[in-house]
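INFO  loader      accepted 1 record
INFO  loader      residues=456
INFO  predictor   begin
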Amino acid sequence: MTLLDRSLRDQAAAIAAGEADAGELLDATLERIGERNPELNAVVETFPERSREMLAAAPQGPLHGVPVVIKDEWPLPWRAQRFGAAEMLAPSAPGESGPYRALRDAGATIVGIGNMHELGSGSTGNVSFYGPAHNPWDLERCPGGSSSGPAAAVAARLVAGAVGADGVGSIRYPAAYCGLTGLKPTFGRSAMDGHHMAAYSTTIVSGPLCLDAADCRLLGSVLCGEELAAGEAGGVRIGVIRDPVSEDVEPAVREACAQAIETLREATGGEIVEIELADLEASALAAVLIANTEGMNGLTPERLNHLDPELSPLGRGLLKYRMLLPAAASTKAAQVRALMRQRVAAVFERVDVIAWPTVPAVAPPLEAPLVELPSGTLTADLANVRSGALANLTGIPAISVPVGLSDGLPIGLQLQAAWGRDELLLDAAEALERGNDRQAVEALPPPAQAADAAGA
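INFO  predictor   done
INFO  writer      dumping tokens
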């Protein structure tokens, strides 16, 4: 196993101790991207000279010399974000975004731009100006979205960590599909400066996609500008709900998540508490409505009549749909959000975390992102939003952790906690890793398995 195959924290520690050369690690990373990325399409642009300049100027921070990928949602001083689309309606220009500054000040080296679902408008990653990203576990499967490229890059061991963004599950879905740990921080806690929606978004946060919870803690601390201190997750009260979000899922997913919840209970000496959370379906609709209305900045009839022809038909349709949303719908969505915040606050008086599947099925085919559930055939987007939307609507933190495989494809369990309890989620995720002997977080997709067997 090379240093490039090891964890984010191992890479940082080896460089800090003088056991590894950061320049050699950067060269190895760029070489691996060149070798593995063509079939993945996870990284849409590299800039070796800029990366070397960043490394040469890197301070001795917690990520000194460590290569990372950043989603195409954040501007860099030498590159404007493209948002995975042929055209952005909001202004786009190079600049020092918050995530860029956080990485720079921590000493990290940005080696490439991660692909993403067009306009951030999907949970699958199968539509992008750059072409779809591919899941390293099965190249014909979706990697998840909208942070598709960052997740695929980490899963394929191009890098050990990447920065994504989560507007309606966009970090957690790809984490589940690609067998990673992905943290959606509490709203307002992580760096957002420079995002084209930062001034008015009430749902989007930046966050880490990594191999395990400890790496998410390290990268998440950098993005939050404060240490997400480790603690012991003891006596965790785990809330479970009997609802389509946990019941209308593939049998293998339901079984793996149920077993993981029991493992977490045993590992923490906790208890499982059945809870009720009414109107989850309405909360998902409210989150989508709010996300769409927030994305209306720059929309005018004239702009809509002159959209770039390379924008996908679905992307064009979604933009035009936003102009048809009645004001009453936005008002009702805001009312639902206020109601769900009150209900969630009441639930967290009884439990410490809420647990349910991150997504109801394993990664669907890129060509037809449909999932077969007990209720019937659904689009992956429709099925996924049921589980991912609550955290964005209310602003609570959430994490997806890998808990097993079904037919060679990863399964993810989502944990959600009260506002500001991001550290508890990371502690619980680490306890779960110990409880299953880290089997899920150390599972390798085929490209990494082949390289590991060859000793590369």
